Amino acid sequence: MTTAATTATTAGEWTPYGLTEELEGRFGDPHDAALEFSFARLGALDRAEAFPAEVCRQLDALGLPKWFVPAHLGGELRSSEELLQIIRTLGRRDFTVALAHTKTYLGAVSVWVGGTAEQAAWLAGRVMGGAVVSLALTEQSHGSDLLAGELTAERTRTGGYRLDGEKWLINNATRADLVTVLARTDPAGGARGFSLFLVDKARMTEGSWRPVPALPTHGVRGADISGIAFSGAEIPASARIGAEGAGLEIILKGFQITRTLCSAMTLGMAGQALGVAVAFAERHELYGRRLADLPQAGRTLAEAYADLLAVEAVSLVATRGIHTLTGEQSAVSAVVKYLVPTVGDQLIAGLRQVLGARAMLVADHAEGTFQKIERDHRIVGIFDGSTVVNLNYLINQFPVLVRGWRGGHTDPAGVAASARLDAPPPALDPGALTLYARSGCSVVQALPAAVGRVRDREPDSAVAAQAGRLLVLAGELHDELAAHRPSARDVPERAFALARDYTLLYAASAALHLWLENPAGRWSDTGWLEAVLTRLLRQLSGEPDLDDVDGPALDRLLPTLRRQHREGLLFSLLHCELAEAAGRPAQEGS
Amino acid sequence: MSIASTGPTAPDTVPAADIRGWLVERIAFYLECSTEEIAEDAPLVDIGLDSVYSLTLCGDVEDRFGLTVEPTMAWDHPTVGAITAHLTEELARR
Lengths: 590, 94
What we know:
The structure holds two protein chains of two kinds.
Chain A: H1 18-27, H2 39-47, H3 53-61, H4 80-93, H5 95-114, H6 117-128, E1 133-136, E2 152-155, E3 161-171, E4 178-184, E5 194-200, E6 209-212, E7 225-235, E8 240-241, H7 247-283, E9 285-286, E10 289-290, H8 295-324, H9 329-355, H10 369-377, H11 387-396, H12 398-406, H13 412-419, H14 442-445, H15 447-457, H16 462-483, H17 493-517, H18 528-541, H19 547-555, H20 558-566
Parallel strand pairs in A: 1-4
Antiparallel strand pairs in A: 2-3, 3-7, 4-5, 5-8, 6-7, 9-10
Helix pairs in contact in A: 1-4, 4-5, 4-7, 5-6, 5-7, 7-8, 7-9, 7-10, 8-9, 8-13, 8-17, 8-18, 9-10, 9-11, 9-17, 11-17, 12-16, 13-17, 15-16, 15-17, 16-17, 16-18, 17-18
Chain B: H1 16-31, H2 57-65, H3 73-76, H4 80-93
């Protein structure tokens, strides 16, 4: 099935999804119920609300925690793309596993961003040794309002701190060996009233802390979503991450990385939901024809595929952007964290129509994967900053986005490096993360030049026309952003709609840059850009879908979708072999 | 460059009273209140400018004075008086 020409995995050559292919080979075919990391076993664990302990143990044994540690500290993490691939790969098999295993990166990132060299070296050793690290921000009475937190850290006479209070709804709170805790260090609170502490459970006096039991949840039913309570728990001063009062700043900078990486969760789950739907449509017959051959079902599948490719484009460019356009990530991470989970939810809901009643079966169709994904995926839009929080972040940044657009501010080298998939991006400089994107968003601001290049490359083509239309809509949108009256009091509904449109504009821009910066041979389909822009332009212009106008571009995508499914490839812009790929050794490397 | 330039102005020194007046107007605009309601020593958070929103002030400072300041300026200098003192010092230094 796989020809040498399409598999660019010759030794030493960097391929964007090389790690995915390696992991897939090691994990084995998820449809093989004999394997621990299979849809069947994980579906059963979910129904039993049981934690996937054996799979997590296997992932540790495979050395996955090395990718939670930056390379300069002895780990394997060179590019955030690697985390993107790990989370996507785990997420397509089971979101509970993805959440449980990769949470350690979320727990550790504050130290990578704001800790001392000694702390980072120490934590690197612990993580690579298999320690589970959690991040404890939220409290029962305050939800996502971090500055309302009541857990306190008071200085002791010996120079350390004493923790009192409780954190709640914390992923891995009970399993964790180490917990990064946000605590109030100034009784008056405020943006400088909170500090972060890396708490080592083994070093606290027995009885000074206790786990708070896990709560049953609608999705990720096997996950350890629990809490931790402190009562006069003494910790050394060396546990503090960054300066006293720097807690919120460090957390918000870490979010710029992790909110971007949340896109991988959607890619993994939405991709697998699409897999379930395509498999069904290829098998099920209606009126003497296969469902996939019926125009309406085929169109629904193609729409879902186009939307998946759009968010993949967003995810790739934004994730590389963590390294290459670091100072803009406060805006970009908000774009990603709003748009990608939202599109994912819609995409999954659309596929339900193809599956019909089977979408609801808990175990008797495709191991119950679809309904499980439907439940699990809803959480992505909620945690790590909800969609509303992220849109507000963007609304606050309208003035710089307008200034950046009108001034034509771009970092062309940064944009090219974000979109050109020929090598890993440079190492992340955490010092370049900032809480306000003062230069705006280069990916969007580089649109005028990109549109010119599209016209040069493919004059009089459909994509050239689409690019031109996009540029007009972008100008109109920025006029509206400029007319928005900034207010710290009331945010009108219209501002949320504008912010949403901006995220669509980012997606279309990211797709154009990817198309321009990569050789034609890299794509799994030549018509993807037209189909992706067709979908995005309709949403951006607010016009309803016009089946006979939009249909052909989408329908042309369908054979690629069906081929990727048939050949066991990732549903992707790029060529990437999953464990299911025909001719691939089933248990390579394990 | 003409005097009527609309770009950031960068005079050698800016009187503290000018900075204060500009800042009070800016904050009153965001809070949709009159400038009289902005007390110099009141924590901005207490009068309604939350800590995430106050990050946006750095963009205004850059536009008005051509001065690059940390987005967390209002966290470390949480009142009109404190920001004024900080900006006066930073502007005098360059």
